[in-house]
Each structure stands twice: as structure tokens, then as C-alpha cells.
Amino acid sequence: MEKESCLNEVTYPLSKKYEIIQWVVLSICIFLIPMIVPKLLIAAFGTTSWIATHSQYVVGTIVNTVLITTAINVKGWKQIAGIITLPSISAMGSGLIFKTASIYTVYMIPAIWIGNFTFVYLYRKLFVQKKINYILTSIVSIILKATIIYFCFRALTLVSIIPNTGKIFTALSVSMGMTQIITASIAAVIGAGISMIYANKKQ
């Protein structure tokens, strides 16, 4: 019973039609972001600009915002799982975010999926179902997501699947660690606003 409630409880219930529209829009958005945003940043600010060369901060923030929106207002684990898996596939396929390190990040896909699933599940379980404070939920969710992803990254470096020295190691160490915390934290702030919009509509 509790499991069923967790699957179906959302902040703002929608009709079946709008549930489908919401899921399609979020899925398309989260899939296209890793492919489109880096190109837009390069076009707007130039190839050598800081924001273009660090596009993962922008992409990661948007992706995490979509994940939080998914956690608080998308029903069904099949729908949620689809959204969770799309951004890493898109990022790997485009090669625009991690560039020369993209070949190594393929090995990180399962860890990213698990991290994203944990992130979404905790928001859903703690904030949506248990009604725990949004800030506390965000802190717990962000820390666990970043810990899972970074721990898996370090494990892969220890067995030499991913280089444990050099520029690639340094870049991925930041991407799989601090960048995860920064982008998820910014997304949590944006997600608070989205959550309030849903809550006001419900009232």
C-alpha cells in the first residue's frame, strides 16, 4: 500500500491527458538539453568563453531541475525511469559536454542512473509522500546522489578502467564530484519555486 502511494502520489494531480503531455515535454527537454545547450552557449559566448567550456554547469542545473520536477509531479516508475536514463545517453551520444573524456564516461552511465534514481526517489519519498521539509530533503538527496556517483568514479579509477592521473582524471573528478553538488543545489533552489507553483495550483 505504501509502495503504491509512493508511485502515484504527486504534488499537483493532473488529468491523464496532461500527465502524458507533461511526461512527453519533460522527456524531450531532458534528452535535448545535453545536445543543444552547449552549442547555444558556444554560439552566444564563443568557443573559448568560460561558460561554453564549462557547459556542464548549465546543462547539469537544467537536468537536475527536470529531475526534481519529475520527482514531485510525474506518476509511475516506468515514466520516471525513462526520464532518468535519457540525459546521460544524450550526453554520451553528443560528446559535447565531456569532449575527449566522453569515452570514459560511458563506464559511468550505470552510476549516473543510480545517482539520478536515488535523487528522484528521495524527493518523492521524503518531500512528496512524507511531507518532510524541502530544504532538508534537498540536502539529503544532493549529498547521496553526489556520493554515489563520485564513489563509483573513484572505484573505476582504482581498477584503472578510468585513468587515475592526468587531465582526464582531473576533469572527471570535478565533474563527478563538486559539479554534481553545485548543479543539484542550484536546481534545488529552482525546484523550490516549481514546487510552490504546483502547491498553489493544488489549492
Provide the descriptors you would attach to this structure in a database record.
203 residues, mainly alpha, 10 helices, 80% helix
Characterise the protein shown here.
The protein has 10 helices and no strands. It is mostly helical and 203 residues long. It has one domain (2-202). The longest helix is centred in the N-terminal third of the chain and has 30 residues, at 16-45. The two termini are 26 Å apart. The mean pLDDT is 87.
Mean pLDDT figure: 87
Helix residue percentage:
over 70%
Task: Kindly report how far apart the N and C termini lie.
Answer: 26 Å
**Percent strand:** under 5%
Poorly predicted runs: none
The global form is globular
Over the alpha carbons, how many angstroms does the gyration radius reach?
A: 17 Å
Number of strands: 0
Number of helices: 10
Question: For the report, how would you describe the main beta sheet?
Answer: none
